[in-house]
Amino acid sequence: MLALKSGAYVITGSAAILSDAAESVVHVIAVGFAAYSLKLSHRPPDESHLYGHEKITFFSAGFEEAMIVLAACYIIYEAISKWMGGLSLQHLGLGTGLTAVAAVINAGLGVYLLRVGKKQKSIVLEANGKHVLTDCWTSVGVLIGLGFTLWTGWLPWDPIFAILIAINIFFSGFGLIRKSIGGLMDAADPQVQRQLIDILKKETQERSIQYHHLRHRSLGYLHWVDFHLLFPQDTSIRDAHRAATEIEKVIETTLEPGAHVTSHLEAIEDHTEVHANEVH
Asked: Domain check: are 88 and 26 in the same one?
């Protein structure tokens, strides 16, 4: 894609095509970081990372979208500079053809990456898929701008569409940045919260026990969940442990894409007294 778009820019001198090529440069850098992040995220926990390395996926997605925002700023700067310095375009037909080929290829790749990313619950692949589709829409915008220029002969259409494309890229980049920050800050997912409450209500009511102190966070492709289970004080350790394990397994097999669950066992009668001196 980068070779196609760079060639189209060299041939035409179009600011709109330059905006498309600039985003591809960013994409090459971002894909390299994403590949490294995916490899690192699958490493098992070690002595320095007891909970694994999956959080790198949120950082990777945020890095990629931050690069998109920087590319948008560069595109706006270059488009304005070319406009003020005097516009000169040539071979627009060939440049339009190369851009159209890039748009078609990116459309297919972007849809594929999004499908796999959502299936695997991989924020890295999802971010990359959205980036590729953004790249596709950028190419479509470039084609529209070049079409207007060829149709009307008015050269300023080229930098105008380059700026419009950059503004669209700029705002689309902030969506996944917010999502990445939320993942790094362990922001709770309301849908997961509701699903966990429904499961725990059902499972505890069936066993005539209670629960509280539910917490969960996402690692991108796995949820970490913990909660307290309250049993009557005459319940044996064996029975309480068996019930807790059964509830944990229900959550692990129900919550998508997967879950690591830990429960803490307490007696209903004195749990308030036991925790009375805790500092929260």
From this structure: yes
Q: What's the full length of the chain, in residues? A: 280
Q: What are phi and psi for residue 275, nearest 5 degrees?
A: -95, 5
Task: Give me the CATH number covering residue 235.
Answer: 3.30.70.1350
Does 98 fall in a domain? Answer: yes
Residue with tokens 């259409």: 157
What range defines the domain where residue 261 resides? 190-274
Question: What is the C-alpha to C-alpha distance for residues 5 and 17, in angstroms, rounded to an integer?
Answer: 7
Answer yes or no: is 279 within a domain. no
The verdict on 129 and 221 lying in the same domain is no
Q: Is the pTM of this model over 0.70?
A: no
One-letter identity of residue 259: A
Q: In this structure, is residue 280 part of a structural domain?
A: no
- Residue 35 tokens read as 């590949």
Taking only the tens of pLDDT, the chain with its 280 residues reads: 788 888 888 888 887 787 778 777 877 887 888 788 878 877 888 888 877 777 787 777 778 778 778 878 888 887 888 788 777 777 778 888 888 888 898 899 989 988 888 887 776 777 778 778 877 877 887 788 888 888 888 888 888 887 887 887 777 777 667 777 777 777 778 899 999 999 999 999 999 999 999 999 887 677 889 999 999 989 999 999 999 999 999 999 999 878 889 999 999 887 777 776 665 5
Across the strands, what pairs with 174?
none
- The domain total for the chain is 2
